[in-house]
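Read as amino acids, tokens; as here:

___
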Amino acid sequence: MIRTIPNINTTRLSLCAMRPEDFDRYAQIWAMPEVVRHIGPPKTRDQAWNAFLRNAGHWQMTGFGQWAIQRHSDRQMIGQTGFFYAARGMGEDFDSLPEAGWILTPDAHGRGLAAEAAGAAHDWFDRVIPGPLVAMMDEDNQPSRRLADRLGYRVIRHADIDGNPVILLRRDGPPGSR
């Protein structure tokens, strides 16, 4: 099964397939404590490689996945956004649905780039694979909570994963469609 990963361009960003030559930057991003502080510990290079391969395989198996986020101005990869199945053991109302996620490097924070990238990814999902989505985030991650709200997510419940309190969210379509 071969699937084409679409390129999505916004005003300032490109969402594109991760290529083998992107791995070094991917590993750098996932090793940054500021990037993963609400997700878990930084990834080692071999953990990053496994996640990198999982991202590529996800597109092949499901027809959706995560994109690299690149700035138009310098073609620098500054994060990733998209959708995946994680099988986290959080219950049928969560695990059976595609999960959305987004991360950005610290130098990209506070500029509206996460909203631009995640918004474009969600617009694509709504056109190509319409249906509900879920997201999970650390209770203290206020910027991501605001973005999730803007994208139309609502709290399902509070939960615990690996000893950390998280919020489980669900989106039943674009904001205003409910």
Observations:
- Helices lie at 23-30, 33-36, 45-62, 92-95, 113-128, 142-151.
- The chain has one domain: 8-171.
